[in-house]
Amino acid sequence: MWIFYSQAASADEDLVRLQVSEPFIELHTGPGRGFPVFHVVERHDWIDILKRRTDWFRVRTEDGKEGWAYIEQMEQTLALPGKRTEFAQVKQEDFLQRSYEFGAMAGDFEGAAMMTIYAGINMSRNLSAELELSQASGTFSNSFLLSANILSNPFPHWRVSPFFSLGGGVLRNEPKGTFVQSQATEDATASVGFGFRAYLTRRFVFRAEAKEVVTFIDEKNNGEFFEWKAGFSFFF
Amino acid sequence: MEGRVFILFLMRWRNVLSTSALLLMLTMPLLAVAQEAQSPLAPTDAPIIEPEVERKEIIDAKIDTEDFEVGFFGGMYSTEDFGTNSVIGATFAYHVTEDFFFQLAAGETETQPSSVERLGFFDILNDDERTLQYYNLSLGYNILPGEAFVTSNWAFYTAFYLIGGIGNTHFAGQDNFTINFGAGFRFVATDWMALHVDMRDHIFDLDILGEELTTHNLELTMGLTFFF
Question: What ipTM is given for this predicted complex?
Answer without folding.
Answer: 0.72
